Give the backbone structure.
Amino acid sequence: MEPVPGNHFYPSFLLQFAFGFFPQMYQRKWGRIFTALGVFTFLRLPYLSGLPMVGSYQLVGLFLGSILGIWTREFILVLLGRNETALPKQSEQILRDWMIRNPTGKSNLPIWYSTYFGFIFFLCLLTVLCLFQYQGLGLVTGLGIQEYLYFPSLSSREAMGLSCKILVPTSFVILYLFSEERSMPTPSKDSLSEQLRFGLFLGLGINLLVMSIQSIWSLDFFSEGTLESVKVGRSTGLFQDSGSASWILPVLSLLWISKLIQNWRKSKERFSLVLAVLSFLFVTWLGLRQGKAFWVVWSISITIGLIHLTTDLWIISITKKRITRMGLYLLIPILGFLTLYGLSFIQKDWDLIALSKRFMDAVPVWRKEPYLAFEKMDLTRAELLTICMEGIKTNLWLGNGIGSFPLALLDPFRVGTKTSIAMIDFPPNFFLWLVYDLGILGSFVFFFFISLFLWERGLWKQCLLLVLPFLFGVQIQNSDGAFLCFYLVLLGEKGTGFSATFDKFRKTIWFSPLLLILSLGLPLNYALFYSQRYWDLGIGSEFRKNQLREYQVAATLPPRSPNFEYEFHGKVWEWKLSEFGSARSGRIFLETTDKSPVVEVLFLNSDKNIIKQELFEETKYGYSWSGECPKGASFLRLKSRSRLEFRLPRSQFDGNNRIQF
């Protein structure tokens, strides 16, 4: 959806694609490891190549390469008769070894009975709804992407790009995990989870190394594309930004330390225990350059982990163990308050100390004015919370459309609270975002699929790892966060397989068809209810024309300094003609370096019938036409035989966005 220069797109895309595709073709195991590793090391590869901030671009190449690698590998193996014939002869050693490395991966369940199927169908419907709202199906462009300005300073492509910022990482991660599970040789999730976790730990190690260099040497080391993170003194590693690092770092480190503690308890090997302690101290030191989300997630998780570990080691009785844990849990808020109170007296420029001081300022007014206390804690999130609640009240049941919150912040015509900062963000936590974008009905559909996954895998306790991170933002808006979230929810750190209760119901005749009906029916009903608003508001450019009460400019990119020119991509464009006689004769010059055999201009009446048709003349810097609009012409249409990328000055359009000469 977002126009990306080819010289920036292809180098990083092809490198990501190769990193995912070829390991998958070689062996299932290494394909998973390389994909998980690439998630946390390749995310900002486009930025390092000079590409500006692009929301949905990120890891498209990596996931597309991995998914196509899985499908291609399985397709070729089936064509070679892996499931029907014996292995090749010893003389065909390369082919024989390849088939041994990739055993049978056929699932017993039909694809439409998979729990992934309904979720993917839901995401497809959300994408179609976005396409209708932000693009439509143009009468001129047919099934192509309809170009126009959604806001005076935002094109329709950029508007849908904000939705793609959520849809693309979510869809690709779900489709990738679905493809991996369909190629599993057995229903067990053990090997898949362990191999992905190995890749995650490799990615964590590389990020810890980069963060160390950033903390000791310079924050500018591999920091391109992290927006404001470096300016506020935070280390990001190779993660998206400090917002991602502040929760991914403690969660991944917690999994790593838990693995070491588990190995120590099984083998009594002191090396694992020493490494766990050193890892804890090292990550805590790196946390000095992280945001407040890191300290909340890290301190609470480590405290709960220590409570469980010590009670397991020192208390044998299950009853006494539970009572002791409950008592210690009650002490956590008290210890947290005392810690923040003590830190508030330290004169250091650290985020943790700044958080402590803001917390102590907010405590005295918490009872009388909770919102004022929240403002003292975090003014930005307080404003985002207010805007979010205003939007929820407007469309409580069906929501405002996925990815619509950043668009609301950019809306110059929105009535309500305005933000005091220029940065475009999401609601303060995941749950508010879900209700704002999808409403109560859409949130119910989303949680239906998540609950289905958790029940199928018996991982109800596993989702607790995401409770704290989800309270500090929309963690699936970036590909690294989306991958880790869905890995924990759908697979689980322990890699457990199917739950016994779900397996029991799955074997009945009625259960799988019922799930299929619900998986299709619930998303379809939500989409049908949501689409009713199009009857009143219209779709695509008509929707915005009715709201803005002006004609649309079929532009891919709006005018920006220093040239203030509209940029157009495609083959067909149509505009309303100015009604003033003095503005209906003159010259149109398409500034472009592209070439097309034929570029023509068509004049249409109010019924869209052609009344005159002429050709543009090719010049050194583009295409030119001079003349006068015929009598009765209401619309002007440009057609190119080949795809063009050209520019027109803002002065080419009047105050109502009608074209003038």
Summary: Residues 113 and 514 are 10 Å apart (CA to CA).
